[in-house]
Amino acid sequence: MRSHEVEYEVYGDDLQFVEVVLDPAETVIAEAGAMMYVEDGVDFETVMGDGSEPDAGLFGKLKSAGKRAITGESIFMTHFTNNGGGTQRVAFAAPYPGKIVPVDLAVTNGRLICQKDAFLCAAMGVKVGIVFNKKIGRGLFGGEGFILQDLTGDGLVFLHAGGTIIEKRLTGDRLRVDTGCLVAFEETVDYSIERAGKLKSQVFGGEGLFLATLQGTGRVWLQSLPFSRLADRIAPMGATQGEGSVIGGISTMFER
Q1: DSSP SS3 for 178
Q2: pTM of the prediction?
Q3: Domain range annotation of the chain
Q4: Which among 217, 206, 121, 108 has a CA at the least distance from the CA of 170?
Q5: What is the DSSP string of 103-121?
Q6: Topology of domain 7-229, CATH
């Protein structure tokens, strides 16, 4: 299925949202709960799986939904379709401070591999699947789980990541990254896990026991503030605030 060709604009700085422009009969898919607003004429419905194979039948839809359940995401996605007479807009907001990164799968050989919670929305026709890592050690020690999301197709996808986002281009060289800071990479880049230095560095270095190693030729997207780090910073503050601790912890963090 060829992906719908949609136009878009990203608004904001650190708390961004993306506004997608839909021509009549065009559709965009999104994670449940990501919608910010829709204009009149745009209808939306919740479907099982990503809807990239509408003729897959019940078994196919259950299989697609089951894959999403394994990643910890909702088994349902929402389809937003312009059933009006002219162009209409729908917007999707980032779930926490960071950046929205648009990627055209047509220029990534039709495939992009990303963290399981990085996907925000995409043009209809993009298939959202999963990737099982080749070595069990990657899943046990990778820090971000055993499973990565696999985005395939020829349309636009929108990723969200925390803090500042940087795109690096590898030309055969090797890059070692904190596993939480890895957002996405092209399929031409090999991903593996290695120990973070010697035992002393692992225990007292504060960088975790393992690092992600990326090697090959292609693009890699990294984030400066994984949500796990933000949550770890808020949690101790919240514990001292009593009732309403999460809000109090966030306020304390930004006052410093």
Answers
A1: strand
A2: 0.79
A3: 7-229
A4: 217
A5: EEGGGTTTEEEE-TT-EEE
A6: Double-stranded beta-helix (3.60.160)
